[in-house]
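Go through this chain for my students:
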Amino acid sequence: MSKTTKRIVRILEGDFTDRRGLRQEWENIDDDVKKEIFVTWEKLIDKELHKSLKVLKPIKEYLECVDGRKGSLVGCAIPKELYETFTKLSTDGC
């Protein structure tokens, strides 16, 4: 698991155990069960972070292409997601 994922899990644990009533119940849960909970949270968070990065990758590649051509758009394919976002913004009047 990534450092970011572990940090997020610790933040969630801190928030969770900072709530009246939950802290006492959390303290009564066996350590092995807590570990299972952390592992599950880490997997869920990693999965969602991976989805986010997958969506951003084509945009990053496009920006790197434009940067490599010193701002010229010639030869740089605009990612479909980016094109659709710009098209929607322009038709919405933004």
About this structure: The helical segments are 3-17, 22-28, 31-68, 80-91. The CA atoms of residues 27 and 80 lie 49 Å apart. The chain has a mean pLDDT of 80.
